[in-house]
Write a structure and sequence with these properties.
The chain is an alpha+beta fold. It folds into two domains: 89 residues, 5' to 3' exonuclease, C-terminal subdomain (DNA polymerase, domain 1), CATH 1.10.150; 118 residues, Cytidine Deaminase, domain 2 (3-Layer(aba) Sandwich). It contains nine helices and five strands; from the N terminus they run αααααααββαβαββ. It has a five-stranded mixed β-sheet, with helices on both faces. The chain is elongated, with a radius of gyration of 26 Å.
Length: 227
């Protein structure tokens, strides 16, 4: 069988972008039925529905009416189109703006709630201070965590981030920064200046009490970002 008649092999050899639409559909169909090949069934689908948009909205019964497509193949197509639609929605939803310590705390509070040791994370942001992603850098003991600037900024460089916020928790519940927290922050500020990736803040998450209504501390707000 010629390579042109084997869309899976063509995808491996040439890449998905080199395949025609009917070839990609044929891969989803895997094999044809009733003496119809997957490529022939895919071509019939496009002849009937004309566009991928119309095909994606077609009822299962209409897809199954195409010769060579049984119930399982119709379901597989419907699932693939639904996944594509959900991915498109994700891509069009703007990531949150994280330009204040309370927004950072809101983002990560629940993730840190039950930790019994310190977890250190970096929040990667684009030029508009919107979230790119969050990465965990390290875990420590009950009251100690080891962090090196190269680990924080390696993640930022790989994500092409314009700025970062670092976040960790205090299992004791008291978010007051320790001397080690202050030293790490100053090391990160200097490293960010050299790399032209701004460290916007270091947020420490703890727990609220009657005497302490806020469950986090911002080292920027506390003045540790200023000489």
């Amino acid at each position: 069988m010629a390579l042109g008649d084997r869309p899976r092999e063509r995808l491996v050899a040439k890449g998905a972008e080199a395949l025609k639409t009917e070839e990609l559909i044929a891969i989803l169909l895997r094999t044809g039925t009733k003496g119809v090949s997957a490529l022939e069934a895919a071509a019939q689908l496009l002849n009937k529905f004309h566009t991928l948009d119309q095909l994606s909205r077609a009822p299962l019964a209409e897809i199954r009416a195409i010769k060579g497509i049984g119930p399982d193949k119709a379901v597989a197509l419907k699932a693939a189109f639904t996944l594509a639609q959900r991915m498109a929605k994700e891509l069009h939803q703007e990531a949150p703006v994280l330009d204040t310590p309370d927004r950072i705390a809101d983002l990560l509070r629940e993730d840190h709630r039950d930790h019994t040791v310190e977890h250190f994370r970096v929040v990667l942001l684009n030029t508009r201070r919107r979230l790119v992603r969050v990465e965990e850098i390290s875990q420590g003991t009950l009251d100690t965590i080891l962090v090196h600037p190269r680990e924080v900024f390696r993640a930022a460089i790989l994500a092409n981030a314009a700025a970062v916020v670092v976040v960790h928790n205090h299992p004791s519940g008291d978010p007051t920064p320790s001397e080690a927290d202050i030293k790490v922050t100053r090391d990160l500020i200097r490293a960010g200046q050299l790399l032209k990736i701004e460290l916007l803040d270091h947020v420490i998450i703890g727990r609220r009490t009657e005497e302490r209504p806020r469950d986090y501390a911002s080292l920027r707000e506390l003045g540790y970002f200023y000489s």
